[in-house]
Amino acid sequence: MERVTLDFPTAAIIHRHPLTVRVTDMNYGRHLGHDALVSLLHEARVHAFAALGLPEWDMKGYPSIVADLAVQYQSEARWPDALVIETAVPEPQGKALTVYQRICHAETDKVVATARVNQLLLDLSSGRPVKVPDEVAQAIARATAQERGA
């Protein structure tokens, strides 16, 4: 079986978001379910971009859509574990934002999962992806520099 392996780009972190596993996030194995994990990733990603003044539904005039998602599951989380989701966005290339996220236990830093989402920004009049606006790339670069303490 081929497994997804993702390298989290630590140098590109733009945001850290604390979350707690809710009882409704548990599956029949009594750990964080895959569907709930994707919802937690989405929640943290929305917060990360909102902190940059870039709500996902209006990124400098363009809404974003998820083109694909890859998740590498690495350990379990259970209710009521405290987690931190780190969001990293390397410098945008062309029409895609590649967003990496790493979910870790808050107290131990043990990685629960690493994920990668490719997001496209759409021109609603044509329904086609657009080049990532310079203002979006600049906001990401500022957040990355701030996280690194530059």
TrEMBL record:
Q: What keywords sit in the KW lines?
A: Hydrolase
Task: Name the CDD domains on file.
Answer: 4HBT
Q: Write down the Pfam families for this protein, in alphabetical order.
A: 4HBT_2
Q: Which residues cross the membrane?
A: none
Recorded superkingdom: Bacteria
Hydrolase listed as a keyword: yes
Question: InterPro entries under this entry?
Answer: 4-hydroxybenzoyl-CoA_TE (IPR050563), HotDog_dom_sf (IPR029069)
Q: Which family does it belong to?
A: Belongs to the 4-hydroxybenzoyl-CoA thioesterase family.
Q: Would you tell me the protein name for this molecule?
A: Thioesterase
Please report the organism this UniProt entry assigns to the protein: Vreelandella alkaliphila
